[in-house]
Amino acid sequence: MKTEFGKLRLQKLGKLALSLGTGGGVPALPPVIQANAWSQPVYALRTGANCLPRATPNKIPGVDASAAGMAVVNNSGGGLNWKTVTITGAGRAISGWDFSGCLVVVRGSGCTVEDNLFAPPLIWKVSTSEIVVSSYALQIGIGADNVADALVQFNDFDGGLGKCNTAVFLGQEAARAIVGNNRYRYFASDNVKSLCRYTSDADRPVLRDSFHGLGGWGSPTAHYDAITIARGGAHILNNCFEETPQTGAYGLNNSVRLQADVPGYVIDNVLVENLVSYGRTGPSLPFQNSNDNSAVGAVRFRNIIVEPNGTGAVFPTGQQDSEGFVEITGALRFPDGAAIATPALKPGGFTYAPTLASVPSGAGAGIEVGTFGAVDVNGDAISYSLQDSAGGRFAIAAGNKLVTGLVATDYPTATSHALVVRILDAGGKYMDRNLTIAVSEGLPTITVDQASVRFPTVNSLSSAIAGASYSYIAASNPSPTTGTWYNNDQCWLATLEVPWEQLDGLTGTALCGVLGNLGTTAATQARTFGLFIGPRKHATLAGKLQLTANSESGQSADWFKQALDISALRRMLVAFRRDGSNFRFEIYSDGALVTSVTQAVGAFATSARIQAGFPIGTMGSSAGVPLSSGSVIGFPGSIGLTGHYVGAVTQADLEAISAGVHPLTQLTAANWRQYRDLPDVTSGSLAKPAAATGDATAAFTTTGTGFGRGSDLTPRRSGANWFASNYIPDGYVWGLQPGQTTATLTLSGKASGLTGLVEARVFDETGQVTKNWTALTGSTIAGGVWSGTIAAPKNSGWGHIDLRPAADPTLVHRLRGKLGVGYKFGIMGQSQLAIALGATTMAKAPGASAALSYQAFDATTLMATLKRATPLRPLTDFMAVAADLALTYTTAPICLVDMAVAGTGIDELLDDSEADRRWSDITTSLAMCGADVSAVVINWSTNNQSTFAILEGYLDPLIRGDAPAGASPAYTVDHYLRDGLTFPSTMAIVLSPPTRHTDATKASATDFSGGAYTGPAGAARADYYAYPAAHAGVVAAIGPPLNDMAITTGGGPHEPTDIDEGPSRIARRLLVGLLRGIAIDTTADPAITGATLASSTTITVNVSRPNGGTLQTAWALKGVAVPGGESTVQGFEISTNGGTTWSRSGFTAEITDAAGGVVTLTKASGTWVTGVRARYLANGPLDYGLPTEALQLYHGTLYESGALEGGIGLPARGGWSATL
Question: E strand or H helix at 319, and its extent?
């Protein structure tokens, strides 16, 4: 434990007013004191100079009028009378009181106790019926009282020759206390005793400039220590200690003693500086570090004089045994022959810096685990050894490195090992320290295989994308050239995985082409076929799979065209077979026929083989060229195998294949005219397999990029047993709650012929396992199904999951969608956010490392969608910007959940009787992407702000479920965020102050009357900022403001989508707010902290920069010149009539101190009037009429420089106003 010591915190303690001597004269300065300039004023404290009341205390408690916050209680017993004086409340001033016969307790923060006399009495102890000494003259705090920033100065403390143990007691919360310029005499035990728990330079107490007269009165067994530090740290500066024996006193034991009163207390960061102790004759100890109860950290001594000669010791041998270290510097003078402990000090300051959080099980020898550190006061060399190496499992290397030993660790046989480290100096002194090293399961890196080809999500984009942009596999023409197309028993089959979440937002007549060479959806080409999926809101084929197969003539009288409902299926085996005189189109799943349709062969007849090869992953023409027709889009799902078999195929054959039996095993290998098992698009997979002896086709080829890993589309099988996991959408994120590093994954599936538990492992895309095979809780297979949970750590990027039954570990079922444990963020609002989330005008794309998905509820289809952002499929400008910005904070995957609906208010969402906005839309979305939302951000006011009651009328009901207050019209709260039903109770709630609004009716830049939007917008923003104070602990964070959002040329509340100050700026600010909510972003918003009428013509405005940046505007960074006649800084307005009217003209606003955060408003002519008012970014803001929007005045708002938005940084809060 190491502590850095900074400069002494100074505080003005008052002027010298009175010097009272102690009697008997002042002896001449000893030579050693004369020789040190610092010691002379310290030695002079013994005269009373600068450490006594500056005026005679003459007010009597209970007689004179009490000071504010003072309560006096009279006590009696055993013939004694005394008073208890209690000071409560913050900032109390207690001065000029004679507290003789009183016990004083201060229980408020920021209190000043100065120029008083303390003479505590003996008291009657009721419990033992005896007269006892009192405990404290002045007690600063009881228990957890907040008594920070106490100032105790210029007081005279008289212990009455042992009537009281301690003069000043500092409680545990006495942070930043200054106890100085006091005189202490005649106490039995301690002059100052500190239990203040704070150790930092800024917060530890300062004990300074005081005279400590002889103590130890009352009993031969009295143990008198002038200053005792029993907890925390202290700066002990400029103190003088008298140790001359007197009759009736038993003398000083220690000038300074470090000893914890309670086991486990921490003492650290103690600096004793400029100390003079005189009059010592006996074997007492100037300093003692007793480590009976606590580890003691860093202790430093600087400039110490102990006079005259004596036999005392600094640290007796055996007692300096701390976790910290002692440092002695400066001018030092101890009595001749004193057993100064410096040569005998043990090494201290032991530290251990782990390189590994835990040691992986089975790790080889020599792997660095951590580094030791220590300090030797004498400057001796230090060495380290292991007195206990956990049986050779650990060793020392390179002097101070802890490494793994020759004996390997073994998890879970041992989850940790205890070591004993010896720290030895050259003088033979040592200390032993215990160290525990955790052992973790060894997490291997595996080769990530796959079971199918997942086609890129870009395939499902609208038909406006040219066909060449689709990625597909080109299948060669089945052979042999002899043979005919379905003139006898034949079967074509394929395994598919349909990502409905990517298709459900599609409407109209466009079909998703899976594979085939039809050319169109109609029968125009002979001997062709095609497989189409109708999105679940398709006009005519909703949720259906359609197969079209043309005969020789390709006329409607002799073709096959049927559709089957697959809306409830994800994975399936699709088969089209001729069975004698019938065609059968069938769908199988997990060993069972799910649905089918039969059609008589009829006039269907062909004279040759299939017309041509065909694309897989989209629909093509008879020449195998993919379509770019508006009626067909590509396939974004997965395909595992495809094949054309000549010969009889039964339902039993297909049930077996759909249950995991290999097709080349189930059916005669020589009858396959075309067969491909496609675990990937490598050349080996694209070529015909050797086992398919009847396949003479050329190798398949690929066009395009973005092919991904696909999951197992049929169960994994061994003998009669099989095992499968259920589908999880690509881009699915399990949301971490704030502060968590693991999330609970619920996984499920089916099995046949198996019992017992199911195991899972989680790994990233590189194959690094993050959670090795672990049994899922509650996953016992029963009735052919299983479900269970597992806790998995946060992913770095996307990951995958393997599952297997514990009863047969060979049956590994692979989930290869891009999944992960990360963060799930809800975005709640109305049109501003809806526009931003959906805008694609700027065609922004995320980087290749982006790990972001987007879940939305389609208001037209009433379906939830989930799509993953990639460079090929950027989704929207908002998503691209958010994905790239997120990577600057975390590599964990993020899912953004769209909860914004244009033109709706909070009341409509919460009230089930409202039709325009439904809470059920949110629950539908969460059913798709999971309800484990990490944080939700709210930026929502336009529809409700006209009531000027956003907080009580809408935010309180939305967040807490309170009855609306001031809302118009009234509404019922049927749901709310914290109802415990929809969202996790631990989810962070983030407020994003409402966006900028302008009045569409304003034509003049001098019109400040306010419009339908501008005044209410400012009030709504103020309510957002006021909410955390109104309801402490309810809101996790407030995001950066959006006062600088651009507005469309027609005015109003909406942003343009073709510039960066629209959706992209909104994306950045919302994401920063969300990351603040989960404590990943630690920034704070700059804000105006005050303003001063600096002169008759200038106003200076001070702006905080909490993140260490400088003050700036965005003009230069955006490459935009400041418009003529405009100030560099925009948004300030002035009123000279008490706020009745406001103007932005007649003055300039410029940054005059960027580093100091100063803006100067300079009057163009004349002088500022008394009572002038200023405000910044009020109402709209920048609502200066429609023509001014083209000037982009928002570039002139104030920012604290930073990395955000290309160096622009964070905007300063608006809504400030002041009267000057």
Answer: none
Separation CA 950–CA 994 (nearest Å):
11
Its pTM stands at 0.70
Q: Is 556 exposed, middle or buried (CB count within 10 Å of its CB: 0-12, 13-18, 19+)?
A: exposed
List all residues 6 or more positions away from 23 whose beta carbon is below 8 Å from its beta carbon.
none
From CA 163, how far away is CA 160, in angstroms rounded? Answer: 5
∠ CA 1076-1079-1080, nearest 5°, is 85
| Predicted confidence (pLDDT) at residue 930 exceeds the cutoff of 70 | yes
Residue 459 three-state SS: helix
Task: Please state, in angstroms and rounded to a whole number, the distance separating the CA atoms of residues 782 and 1131.
Answer: 67
Segment 71-125, tens digit of pLDDT: 999 999 989 999 999 999 999 999 999 999 999 999 999 999 999 999 999 999 8
């799910």: which residue's tokens?
Answer: 594
Residues 6 or more apart whose CB falls under 8 angstroms from that of 138 comprise 104, 105, 106, 113, 118, 152, 155, 157, 167, 168, 169
**What are the tens digits of pLDDT across the range 877-908?**
999 999 999 999 999 999 999 999 999 999 99
Is residue 289 within 8 A of residue 315, CB to CB? The reply is yes
**Token pair of 376, please?**
């030797």
Q: Do residues 211 and 179 make contact, with C-beta atoms less than 8 angstroms apart?
A: no
Q: Is the pLDDT of residue 966 over 60?
A: yes
State the Rg of the chain over Cα: 40
The whole-angstrom separation of Cα 1107 and Cα 1076 is 14
CB 950 within 8 A of CB 941: yes
Burial class (CB in 10 A: 0-12, 13-18, 19+), 586: buried
Residue with tokens 């000027």: 948
DSSP code, position 1039: P
Q: What angle do CA 624, 629, 635 make, to 5 degrees?
A: 65
Contact 192, 118 (CB under 8 A): no
253 CB-near residues (< 8 Å, 6+ apart): 216, 223, 224, 225, 284, 285, 288
